[in-house]
Amino acid sequence: MPAYIIVEVKVNDPVQYEDYKKLTPISLAPFQGKFIVRGGKTETLEGDWEPQRIVVLEFPSSDLAKKWWASEEYASAKALRQRTAETKMLLVEGF
């Protein structure tokens, strides 16, 4: 069953965050992850949610998504993201 990581990002350091954006795609490949949404324009349809940036990643399974998140391949990029942005991240199973 496919799984999706959905991330709301508030970028605090746009210059260094650009480095994060360059590192992340390489880390996804060994886990068969891919971007579905990567920072496109958002429009609030209901509620008061006004995210600065939304990212959606797709993986073949929850297991692979969690392995990517905890991986050595993603570790340096993750540390950079955590220094340069505030994020909310969830894992959702799809169909």
Task: Describe this protein's structure.
This protein has 95 residues and is α+β, with helices and mostly antiparallel strands. It has one domain (3-41, 50-93): Alpha-Beta Plaits (2-Layer Sandwich). 38% of the residues lie in helices and 32% in strands. It contains 3 helices and 4 strands. It has helices at residues 14-28, 62-69, 72-84, and strands spanning 3-11, 34-38, 53-59, 85-93. The protein has a 4-stranded antiparallel β-sheet with strand order 2-3-1-4. The relative contact order is 0.37.
Concise description?
The protein has 95 residues and is an alpha+beta fold. Helix content is 38%, strand content 32%.
Helicity range of the residues?
25-40%
Q: Can you tell me the CATH class?
A: Alpha Beta
CATH architecture: 2-Layer Sandwich
Shape: globular
* Count of runs of 4 or more consecutive helical residues: 3
* Adjacency order of strands in the biggest sheet: 2-3-1-4
CATH fold-level assignment? Alpha-Beta Plaits
Q: What are the low-pLDDT stretches, counting only 5+ consecutive residues below 50? A: none
User: What's the alpha carbon Rg, rounded to whole Å?
Assistant: 13 Å
Q: What is the number of E strands?
A: 4
Structural class, by secondary structure, is: alpha+beta
C-alpha end-to-end distance:
6 Å
Number of separate domains: 1
Please indicate the percent range of residues in DSSP E strands (runs of 2 or more): 25-35%
SSE succession = EHEEHHE
Overall average pLDDT:
96
Sheet with most strands:
4 strands, antiparallel
